[in-house]
## 1
Amino acid sequence: MIRRFKWTDLDTIMEIEKEAFPKSPYSRFTFSYYASAYRNNFLVYVVENKPVAYIIFYSDGHIISIAVKKAYRRRGIGTGLVDEVLKRTGGYAMVEVRASNEVAKKFYRHLGFSLYTIIPNYYGDEDALVMTRMPVPD
Ligand SMILES: CC(C)(COP(=O)(O)OP(=O)(O)OC[C@H]1O[C@@H](n2cnc3c(N)ncnc32)[C@H](O)[C@@H]1OP(=O)(O)O)[C@@H](O)C(=O)NCCC(=O)NCCS
């Protein structure tokens, strides 16, 4: 089940984040900011009342972050969360991906994203690939 983030999810989201991005996890402050300023655009995927994944995005389809708890990966949960963004934008989305994040690149290609441009040193230590997905005509 996908629903909006609730404040009681915060500790679990922090655990998912640290597991997914051990070198550069978002802080509690960052999640709190998005939960306050973008409350409709911070979604969680819940199993037995506990979040196992989240996505944060802007209303124009810019994906800020997505992570799925390791034990729940390759079950279509990430796809389900990106689909929620696509539903709201009519099929458009964009995302920055670390150049070395092979899994994320495969994931987004699978969802119909392709390389738009590269931003050198976007992460300080690494380039970003900007990947976009265009609406698919009927
Ligand atoms: C990227 C991530 C969100 C994908 O979530 P997920 O729920 O496992 O993705 P899905 O099950 O919806 O996968 C959809 C497709 O993406 C591709 N894919 C996903 N994970 C993959 C992997 N480890 N290796 C190869 N392809 C992969 C496959 O084509 C997959 O379809 P399939 O399982 O039928 O082969 C998850 O791996 C994650 O949290 N990674 C760490 C955080 C991260 O890198 N976030 C992205 C930052 S921009």
Note: Residues 77-89 form the longest helix (13 residues).
## 2
Amino acid sequence: MKDSIWLLPIAGLLGLGGCNKTNDPEQSTHSKWIARIVSYTPAPGQFVNSEMGTWEAAESLVGGKKGCLSLGGFGGVVVFEFDHEVRNIEGPDFVLFGNAFDGSSEPGVVEVSPDGERWYRLSGAADEAEGSVADYEVTYVRPEQLERAEEVGWTDNRGGSGAIEALDEIHPQSYWPVSAGAERTLTFRGIRLPDNAVWNGAKYVLGDLGEGYADNWSPDYTAVVGGDPDTKYGNKFDLDRAVDETGRRVELRTVRQIRVYTAVNQQVEGMLGEVSTEICGALSLSAGL
Ligand SMILES: [Ca+2]
Ligand SMILES: [Ca+2]
């Protein structure tokens, strides 16, 4: 199949937003912050159903850097959009904020869509590193009760199994997402990135996986882009990194929606628990264009 090419005029014809704005930055009424949460589907995790793991927490990402949302263990995902299409400008096109710091990265894979239906991954530095698994799938099994914390077992499509462990002293609520209701199992798919938590002799260090991931202390994390100081302390993303499911480059001129999922499946010993990506806002670099 040929690489897809999405052109601006086509997006306009499809009514994908930005149709009635002018080209004058002074006239722009667009916000650089997230405008709407499309969906939030967390995987089980210690913060799920707590202050960082509810629909209200997801909605706190709208309009600025005001809150944080935990996606739970591997595969947990959020989808959001701005009030305009994000354009592929020179260099980075949008910024995702997490709560990473040096030694505390919880990498999430980022995907983008021109229409909310076709999705393309933004490739990252570790996508093909040793320990990465393409076409990875995890199925979590609902615990017996949902009144309090209890470990959530999982199996994967590589013959592996494990559990999101219950840290009931610090996170006593159920880790099974309320949004999953009475579902017996929950399945998530994506790229599994290499385990990033390493014992250094004194403590676990959650190392970064290089550029191209959310909630990840990458080399570009402290850079300021577009002259906007709000972009500091966030991961920068370039639509030029879009690839299809076969890994082939796709040319994207604009995107309508962005989604992020936890891409590490690692239970860290002790109180750190499972590696779970946090999203604490996002910023479009083409709001004023
Ligand atoms: Ca770009
Ligand atoms: Ca984090």
Note: Residues 240 and 251 are 7 Å apart (CA to CA).
